[in-house]
Amino acid sequence: MTYKTYTTNTKLIPPHGGYKNLEAYKTAVIISDGTEYFCRKWIKDLKLVSQMNGAARSGKQCIAEGSLNSGTSKKLELKLVGSARGSYGELLEDFEDFLRQRGLRIWGKDNPRVIAIRRIAYMSHKSYMTYKTYIESEDPETAVNTLICLIHQENFLLDQLLRTLEKDFLEKGGFTERLYNSRKEAKK
Description:
Layout: H1 23-42, H2 46-69, H3 74-101, H4 112-120, H5 128-135, H6 140-172, H7 175-186
């Protein structure tokens, strides 16, 4: 039996992964670390601690998993980035509940402290350490509002990522289409 060889200008499985370079992933790591610290310091209900840390971890891990699966499933990548968005929505609710239940304020986007925190996002090489004085503040209102600000930034980044992934999928198709086209070309 002989097999036909062929060449194609496109790779069947394109480069994928690279999630650690995404701003959304970098921010997710900060949120995950910050949530873990915050819960250890301020939350006594172990079930709530587990849920909040789980939501923060899930958001981060969905970004990684989606990126790693993107070579063979753009659909799964889109779904997982959407799931990350949902996890951060859940975590945002938990932080807002914390403030409301304790009579603390949610800072508006025009609050000078929020503006200062938002400016940090434009720094290169930001990490948990960049936000540490805010997150590890002795004032829980400062800590929570910092994490809320980070979650809003994360949601913005994830929305941009979803739009980019959607556009890319519509223009280039997915793995199944590449398989079909490669198979069709191989039969020529």
